[in-house]
Amino acid sequence: MDTKVKALLLENKGIEDGKEKELSPLGLAYIGDAVYEIIVRTMILAKGNAPVNKLHKQSKEYVNAKAQAELYNRIAAYLTEEEQAVFRRGRNAKSFTTPKNMEIGDYRHATGLEALFGYLYLKGQMERVLSLFEIGIQ
Question: Is the confidence at residue 1, as pLDDT, over 50?
């Protein structure tokens, strides 16, 4: 692995300072999806060991467009102007895929939430991501 990439990851950052603003909203959602997934999986696994299919079923309650849209609705009032702008960029991004069996509004809100989490992660603000996640699941 490239030492520069390794150093950035160890610093809890995926890219150089300021570059997160240059990424496309779908690029931010791409990394934000992984951040969201790791938070949920860690939370589920922390509850105790279980068969993998049971763990997967539990995580599906959180990792779907409807649940992510609901989480956004719970945290919206806590977002800064900058965070709201990143969310809107993600929500309004034109995706080449269309969701099956879900509302387009939920899908867009989920993409916005993922973009926000990706943006904050890349800025090295993982504590803020966790804080928003905790507010959202309460």
Answer: no
